[in-house]
Amino acid sequence: MQQKADLRFQDKITRNTLALILAGGRGTRLKQLTDWRAKPAVPFGGKFRIIDFPLSNCVNSGVRQISVLTQYKAQSLIQHIQRGWSFLDGRFKEYVELLPAQQQIKESWYQGTADAVFQNLGILRHQHADYVLILGGDHVYKMDYAKLLAEHIENKAEVTLACVEVPREEASAFGIIGVDDDWRVVSFTEKPANPPSMPGHPDKALVSMGIYVFNRAFLFEQLIRDHHAENSSHDFGKDLIPYLVPRHRVFAHRFLDSCVNMAADVPYWRDVGTVDAYWEANIDLTTITPDLNLYDEDWPIWTYQEQLPPAKFVFDDEERRGQALDSMVSGGCIISGSTIRRSLLFSNVKARSFSNIEDSVILPNVDIGRHAHLKRVVVEKNCKIPEGLKVGFDATEDSRQFHVTDKGVTLITPEMLGQRIHSVG
Fold it and tell me: Which residue numbers delimit the Glucose-1-phosphate adenylyltransferase/Bifunctional protein GlmU-like C-terminal hexapeptide domain (predicted)?
């Protein structure tokens, strides 16, 4: 009976929550992968976009009033949401709504994350919700927001910050949270050079996930105050949260308590914000037991799915054999006498005879020519890999034409190959 009561309580609060997904950032550390699209629109996992993860978390959690705030090169993101996320029924107050930057309040684009929400206050005031869930659109994770919201109410908090434990040496790129014994936030430091450790765990730090729950009226009040603050950059992490911590009831929520379907003891949360991190997260999906479970029927990741035929593997000769080993191959792919190892292929990839692909991430609509050899590469959408091209075996040679990361991953785009871009979504 208690469990049913808890579920009814969670259902009531999720239906009374508005989710705002901040999806306007470019993500410059992804280099040329974000030349033509915003970071949340970057393809991930063979058939998804990064933004599908927070959107799916919302729907699976029961949060069905969702607004997506866009800005930088948003066309492919807008198309993806229109095609793949129109199944919610507005008659039941369920929707995914797009809020592009429109200079609604002043003659400037979004100046920071808090300013992005502030500029939409006129629209948000008409939404019927008591709680506002602020989410980033550029992280990969599975989280039950209902548990986060329930804890926010239980603590009588005005703001709740979701946090995850990370090794101290990796924490300087994030906002660091300090808490007391009741998990009330006592400090918040944005990207410190020497991150403070967690109580009782000197080798770990509590990192803000950029996920916030606000009481609706309190959020609006604070956004207006921050808008008039002269020295503010109007950002949640840099300005709003540090201001609120010593003055209001701000609590931390452990991601460990709301992470869904962990494959390991550590909750899965990835900022795939560099080419290396992007490559690693995608390649991990090809392992026997990846850290991220995409085969979970109870918490599916929803997306726009193009109608494609199954992947096809042809030729079984000693000289050329169409095969994929320890790999993921999406619909529409044709592996024609090519060998694929430890790689992830998105849809409509054609790998022609005698080509060899290892430890690589190949985005949609790539055509790989005969006798090409690719190793530890990320190939952008719509590339035509020339016959006989070899990449991933000589970093010095590769860097003359392509982008090579510090960890030896090579990014290939149509422009680098001297090919005309028809469209990159």
Answer: 309-412
